[in-house]
UniProtKB/TrEMBL annotation:
Gene3D superfamilies referenced in this protein's UniProt entry, alphabetically: 1.25.40.1010, 1.25.40.1040
The keyword Lipid metabolism is annotated on this UniProt entry: no
Region (Disordered): 577-614
Organism: Linnemannia exigua
Protein name: N-alpha-acetyltransferase 16, NatA auxiliary subunit
Biased composition (Acidic residues): 578-587
Length: 844
């Protein structure tokens, strides 16, 4: 508006309104009208750039906005628009700089201050957020949102007591308080109470609940808080009454039962014999009060021991088998951490089966005849039980007998598939799940499980056909619907299948899809920074912000990151793409022939990809024509093979992009630092590798993989010292921490490794044996191969020492390690693997 006549100034105001109302084309025309007369008016040029941005013309947008700033460097509108442009591209740091620049020329602009505060919250610049919100509060003290925002800032900074002061001050300024419960005011009061609780003043929080009770809408939260505060303050009789009141409303809430137990003075994970009797009496009484509560029947199993457990378990399991509850084993298996309880459950179930076979009842008296389905669900339970123990033959025997009894029950085929999966026969497992799917073609869950098993059997074509049965049919490539719907399990399973088949590009493409989903989750929180303050959903908002802060700690992201790092490390180690595993033992002529075959296969795959691309483009055009949408709006996969990921110039740099979010948000996971070491040691950044090792030691000093990495680090330092590439300053830091890494063994890696073996020899851990063997081999590959082989074959010793950890996964890992050693004893190990896991395809 600066330097414009009144007519154009009014038109400029209309342009600003058009932007607020999202009437971008109309605003664009208005900007052109002004620029015809005043082609160098900076603010109009900037607004035209902003309209270009919303019309998907990014290059022109930046060009016009920068031109506008050049013509009017001191305009807050130009700098604000530049910030909005950066914000739309998720470049929050540059956007914040632009907003800060705009505030130099208009310090009290409410809109710019609000936009800046949103960016500060998004970037978790909490100190800056509090400062900006304080300025807004001073400018508009009558606005409730600004008071609450300051309190939230203090809470997230870990200063809830300051948040309490802010809200108390605001509440004192209120002239009128709603006489009837008002949702927004109610939420603010409950948030105030939450701050008191976080500040640690439970008595004040309890007193506050009494004062706000009549104004609170969320009665359940009020009751839960009161019960919690009574318990925290040691007012046990009042806590007991409060928790009994909550149970009357919801007798299946586990937390209420735990609260009641603690209020009766029966807390603790390991109750005494006297307390155990009281706990069981309490649950008997509760079972009479709430006969339909499953929690009241299930929880006694956690606390009962010995004969009392047998009695309680007998009642519980009988009733569940009688009713035919498929989830019975899922409820029971958490008790198997106690071997005595596992044995008792097994004895009971076998007893039921023998009695049902003999007298059709759960006991041999024959007084009560159970329904025919009782036998079916007993067999189903026993199959799951033995599968959990990895006793495959017995599990298969029971599940096959159950299928003979009732061949139309979907759950039986799913259980059989799970047993075969654990046994290592993924193809047969896929077949069992496909039978289950065909029994109920309208069940999306079974379809999903079947797809997952097909991917684990590396049958990608069938998996894709099965997955798209429940996707949109009106798009050229229905598989894209799975990506749009953020179906992470599919991306992960498909990526891991591609990785097993050495299709690194396709695998990376899938793992990047998972990464994009998590980026989307992070970006999606932006709109909630204003929405939640406006709607006063404050407790949920703070919970969401804290969840976002640890989002990358989610198992899905960690799994995708580990696989992606593995892919990029593989690309770095073998930049030519050759897979040495496939060429091991070949002569030069055979290798030449194999490479030629690979090249032909690659050319064929490229041609097929091109054909597929053309077909997809034609299908997209047809779909767009039918739907009446522009052809450009229909997505076509330009890189189905993921070539752009395999052709990257800096694989380790790309791997770091997956690692860095974990370093920020999942630094308490040892996997994060183990991955970091693999990257930094290859980049020859020994200090960063040292830092990763020190953090791993702090989290889990006896981690199996960590030991091998420590040996590799020492070897890397020795190599750098011998080559005289190790800087004295770097060596000084490494020397300073050497004793933390290698105790008193100094430079003697063999002694360090022997100490590790001796320390873990009674642990019975196969991963630790593998790590020791790998370390032994690395210390001196030419001399120590036999010793490394002996360590690995110690896993096959008779007795139960390694039985618990001699899982299929670990046995396969030993096989892979022997292959890496180019050991002559590979077939011998394969025979042992076949003996332990006769169903596993890998050993056949």
């Amino acid at each position: 508006m600066r330097d414009l006549p009144s007519k154009e100034a009014n038109l400029f105001r209309e342009i600003l309104k058009c932007y607020e109302l999202k009437q971008y084309k109309r605003g664009f025309k208005g900007a052109d009208q002004i620029l015809k007369k005043f082609p160098e008016h900076g603010e109009t040029l900037a607004m035209k750039g902003l309209f270009y941005n919303h019309l998907d013309k990014k290059d022109l947008a930046y060009e016009f906005v920068k031109k506008g700033i050049r013509h009017d460097m001191k305009s807050h509108i130009c700098w604000h628009v530049f910030g909005l442009l950066y914000r739309s591209d998720k470049n929050y740091e540059e956007a914040a700089k632009c907003y800060a620049h705009a505030l130099k020329y208009d310090k009290e602009n409410i809109q710019i201050l609000r936009d800046l505060s949103l960016l500060q919250m998004q970037m978790r610049n909490l100190e800056g957020y509090v400062d900006t919100r304080h300025i807004l509060l001073e400018l508009r003290p009558q606005n409730r949102q600004y008071w609450v925002a300051v309190a939230i800032g203090y809470q997230l900074l870990g200063k809830p007591e300051l948040g309490v002061k802010v809200l108390t001050t605001y509440e004192e300024t209120l002239k009128e308080v709603p006489s009837t419960p008002d949702y927004e005011h109610s939420e603010m009061l409950l948030y105030h109470n939450t701050l008191l609780e976080e500040a640690g003043d439970l008595q004040a929080a309890l007193d506050h609940l009494d004062t706000i009770e009549k104004q609170v809408c969320d009665r359940k939260a009020l009751k839960e808080k009161r019960a919690k505060f009574f318990l925290g303050l040691g007012r046990l009789s009042e806590a007991e009454a409060a928790y009994r009141g909550l149970l009357a409303v919801n007798p299946d809430n586990m937390a209420y039962f735990e609260g009641l137990r603690n209020s009766l003075g029966l807390g603790g994970d390991r109750p005494t014999d006297e307390d155990e009797v009281k706990i069981l009496d309490m649950f008997k009484q509760l079972q009479k009060e709430y006969p339909r509560s499953n929690a009241a029947k299930r929880l006694p199993l956690r606390y009962a021991t010995g004969e009392a457990f047998v009695k309680v378990a007998d009642e519980y399991i009988r009733s569940m088998l009688r009713k035919g509850v498929p989830s019975l084993f899922v409820n029971i298996k958490t008790l198997y951490s106690d071997s005595a309880k596992e044995t008792a459950v097994e004895k009971l179930a076998l007893g039921y089966l023998a009695s049902l076979d003999k007298s059709k009842g759960f006991d041999h008296s024959g007084a009560v005849v159970e329904p025919p389905t009782a036998l079916l669900w007993t067999l189903y339970f026993l199959a799951q039980h033995y599968d959990f123990k990895r006793e495959t033959e017995q599990a298969l025997g029971y599940i096959n007998r159950a299928i003979e009894h009732t061949p139309t029950l979907v759950e039986l085929y799913m259980a059989k598939g799970r047993i075969l999966k654990h046994a290592g026969d993924h193809v047969a497992a896929m077949g069992a799940l496909n039978e289950a799917r065909e029994l109920d073609l309208q069940d999306r869950f079974i379809n999903t499980k079947c797809t997952k098993y097909m991917l684990r059997a590396d049958n990608m074509a069938e998996a894709e056909k099965t997955a798209v049965l429940f996707t949109r049919a009106d798009i050229p490539n229905p598989l894209n619907d799975l990506v749009d719907m953020q179906t992470q399990w599919f991306s992960l399973e498909a990526g891991e299948s591609n990785l097993r088949q050495n299709q690194v590009g396709r695998a990376l493409k899938r793992f990047h899809q998972v990464d994009k989903h998590f980026n989307d989750y992070t970006e999606d929180q932006f709109d909630f920074h204003t929405y939640c303050l406006r709607k006063m959903t404050l407790r949920a908002y703070v919970s969401m912000v804290r969840l976002e802060d640890q989002l990358r700690n989610h198992p899905y992201y960690v799994r995708a990151a580990q696989n992606a790092v593995q892919c990029y490390v593989r690309l770095f180690d073998k930049p030519d793409g050759s897979e040495s595993e496939e060429m091991e033992g070949m002569t030069e002529a055979e290798k030449k022939k194999f490479r030629s075959k690979q090249r032909k296969a690659e050319l064929k795959a490229q041609q097929e990809a091109e054909d597929k691309k053309k077909k997809a483009a034609v299908a997209a055009a047809e779909t767009a024509k039918k739907a009446g949408t522009p052809a450009a709006a229909v997505k076509v996969d330009e890189d189905p093979e993921g070539t752009k990921y395999t052709k990257c110039e800096d694989p380790l740099g790309e791997a770091l992009k997956f690692l860095q979010p974990l370093q920020q948000l999942a630094s308490d996971r040892v996997e994060t630092h183990l991955m970091a070491f693999e990257i930094y040691v290859r980049k020859n950044k020994l200090l960063l590798a040292l830092k990763a090792l020190l953090k791993s030691i702090k989290i889990d000093a006896n981690h199996a993989t960590l030991h091998e990495q420590l040996v590799r680090f020492a070897l890397a330092v020795q190599k750098a010292s011998s080559a005289k590439t190790l800087k004295p300053s770097v060596k000084a830091v490494i020397d300073q921490h050497w004793s933390e890494l290698y105790d008193a063994h100094g430079q003697d890696l063999s002694a360090f490794n022997v100490a590790f073996v001796n320390k873990n020899k009674d642990l019975g851990s196969v991963p630790h044996v593998i790590s020791a063997a790998m370390s032994t081999y690395l210390i001196n590959p030419s001399k120590n191969l036999g010793q490394a082989e002996l360590l690995l074959f110690s896993v096959a010793e008779k007795g139960d020492k390694y039985k618990r950890t001699r899982t299929l996964e670990n046995v396969l890992l030993v096989q892979k390690t022997l292959k890496g050693f180019k050991s002559s004893r590979q077939q011998e190990w394969k025979a042992k693997g076949n003996e332990w896991f006769p169903n596993a395809v890998a050993f056949q």
